[in-house]
């Protein structure tokens, strides 16, 4: 049986570009396929094979994309955030039981010392200076005891990632080759990706969004992906001009940063039209969706994904089908339903927990019986998101269950308050969150970034919200900030925000 990764790369024309990056020649599919085979052979020669975990700590760019794909073809790849500190590397490398750690040659990182402490062999990646994504692997130890067994099968684990661990210890999510193949296909079908498409990747490549939507879905369609060093709103439009992408995918905060610089880059937008823009990993305010479409004259496709589903679960369709702002579209891969706390699947129009099942969904968290018992009900995976499906099958996410504010028994969706405040002309960015309350348990608070040159006070904003929402939903505390704290991928963080902003004694 042919290796899944090799199969996914087989659709690209031999001379067509697969990976592109600033300052180097593109890597074509013929060379990429040969490179993948070479990497698998090298890993096997080191005694590393299927189900062996190879952690990679690499800066964003063509080599992290190429390493993800090529290492996954012969082992289990585990990308880690290069910005972690020593204690974090110690936890993740130990939790993964990594067989080896791949680092960029000559790059100083605390991961190297941690690997030595954990007796994890280090493999240095020596990048090609001429061709994007090509590299050589140089083991720094001769002791790599273990098997060497060629490429993996569909049921083997291709990728492992950790959950964010916002409210609990991070959990290991194993994803099989079959999970990755299904998700890549689902994304490609939703976006009608072809060999003519070129993605501009600005997402971090230690997170499921960038790995699957930008990289693997593009390659599975025979298209190309331009791998940037990471998100940079100041360079975004020059990258558009240089590489002429047909689409990009990002989280809402990135879209907002791009919009803030769009007016002065009108020429680049007009000369390099996009086929579509994709948004995922966090709810996109309808106001931002409208502004993106007006600015770029391209449809914005909001999708819904998570690590446990190898990314995509639902997606708004491309035109001429209807896109519904405020929804994440119909199911686009796995089955989606709404379930109550007792495990009963609810009819359309009733709010409950979003549940999924299908080929792209993980079989369960690793060595975590308690978490799996809570996460799976009757074959359905509980996402932890609250939502409702309308009569047309479109899913609206009303919030994370853990983020719902319980004000004296009244349940408030922070997203609902966000969307009202975003309609105020002075508000550029907002995140609503819970603050402790002595009598009510929790109360409503909002952190707000004002638009450039705009002014507003708390009373004005509260009055604005009160015109559209019940009084118990109006934020009692409003904090004006220059920047809202974000997670590793640029997502706004609600949980723990009260502590970060000094609102909890």
CATH architecture label name of the domain at 29-176:
3-Layer(aba) Sandwich
Shape: globular
The CATH topology of the domain at 29-176 turns out to be Rossmann fold
Structural class call reads alpha/beta
Helix count, per DSSP?
15
Strand element count: 25
Within the largest sheet, what's the order of strands?
A: 2-1-11-10-12-13-14-15
CATH class of the domain at 29-176: Alpha Beta
Helix content: 25-40%
Low-confidence stretches: none
Provide mean pLDDT, rounded. Answer: 91
What's the story with the biggest beta sheet? Answer: 8 strands, mixed
How much strand?
Answer: 25-35%
Write a compact overview of the structure shown.
The chain has 505 residues and is α/β, with parallel strands linked by helices.
How would you describe this protein?
It contains 15 helices and 25 strands. The chain is an alpha/beta fold and about 500 residues long. Strands 2-1-11-10-12-13-14-15 form an 8-stranded mixed sheet, sandwiched between helices. Strands 4-3-5-6-7 form a 5-stranded mixed sheet. Helix 4 (about 85-95) packs across helix 5, helix 6 (about 175-190) packs across helix 7 and helix 9 packs across helix 11 (about 285-295). It is globular and about 65 Å long. The model has no long low-confidence stretch (mean pLDDT about 90).
